[in-house]
Amino acid sequence: MAAVGSGTGRALLRRLAVEQVETRMPSLAAMVLRAGRPVWFGGRGRVGGAEPGTDTQYRIGSITKTLIGVMVMRLRDEGLLDLADPLDKHLGGTPVGEVTLGQLMSHTAGLTAEPPGPWWERTPGASMDDLAAALDEGTGRFRPGRRFHYSNLGFALLGELVARHRRTGWEQAVREEILAPLGMSDTTARPREPHARGYAVHPWADVLLEEPEHDAAAMAPAGQLWSTPADLARWAAFLCQGDERVLAGATLAEMREPVTVDDGDAWSVGYGTGLQLMRHHGRRLAGHGGSMPGFLSLIWADPADGTGVVLLANATSGLRPSLATDLLDILDTLEPVIPPAWTPSPADPDLLELTGPWYWGPAAYLLRLLPGRDLSLGPVGGAGRSSRFVARPDGTWRGLSGYYAGETLRVVRHADGTPSHLDLATFVFTRTPYDPAAPVPGGVAESGWTAG
């Protein structure tokens, strides 16, 4: 493991130690990543008489959902399903067959948060047949697509969808297609030694009560898995950087795109497609939290620079979510990222002549050349529609961000080959404001620019 400096390591350990004492965690483990690689690990408390290590297993709860999400996207990329498909197309026999797979993945399907019956996290699991039979018209609580409403039930249904498409259990599919390629051999459906025991901590005394642990059966895709700090560091690195053996980079980026917001106007926490999202001090983090009786977990990853954090604890409640961002803040403050040196890169002459100012009507924009043949287009003053564009083989560009995401940018040239104007989603950008020689929509007044 690459290491942070001793001062940074001490600050990180102190923050972890304070959390373990003040929230009375029986044990607490944390891993911090930089550039997609672990740079610090800390463990406090006791598991089997020793401090937790990088190979100590904890139950990770809803972090399981992120692996189910990746499996669904693998099926999508293989052409076996579409996120716009209704659930009924792949998993019939439920009273909520009209909700789409994309809505289930983003918790916007409007389903009840929990399955019917006793609290599933503390009772033996039922089969999918029994679970489906227990659903009724009350399973849908909101109009699909209306709002964010977290649903464990929704991911149980997605896990069954994965199992049916792969004709095997969801856990075996996850192990073969995700865990094995990423080297996550210590992530399992049931615990193996050394593993933490799950406890409830008495609210008014320093005593523990062991929590039950079982196979959640049909609900398992919502929170069954166990993992270690080392394995979850590999998962955080994957969420940052991707791995083509598991999922195409563009698909992983799609999963990180915001679909819905969880905290209204604040927009600090939201949900993508199978991933929780958070904005913090300029970072855009992707990951997930997890909780099961006796266990708490959290993983965040920033694809911008490969920074990540993993937390694991064996208590039912009490861990403060701010611990994760506090550890990131300590790292950023004491060891800020040093950007790589700028170096020039070659540019094709036909692209160089496109750079500089263009005008959408009277509004001035700058076209910049990015590495390769990619482009960026944004207003000179900074306020307005900005987008990045990726080059296509046919000589056009496709928008990657902002208002023009997915739209086509074309360079229209005069007969002599010199640029005439840019055509972008019906908007015409010219070299001078309202160039009368260009096909400006609606035409240009013959009187030209006047004093009024």
Automatic annotation (TrEMBL):
Residues 348-431 form the DUF7586 domain. InterPro entries: AmpC-like (IPR050491), Beta-lactam-related (IPR001466), Beta-lactam/transpept-like (IPR012338), DUF7586 (IPR056008). The keyword Hydrolase applies. Keywords: Hydrolase. Residues 14-320 form the Beta-lactamase-related domain. GO terms for molecular function: hydrolase activity. SUPFAM superfamilies: beta-lactamase/transpeptidase-like. It holds the Pfam family DUF7586. Coiled coil: none annotated. It comes from the Bacteria. This is Serine hydrolase.
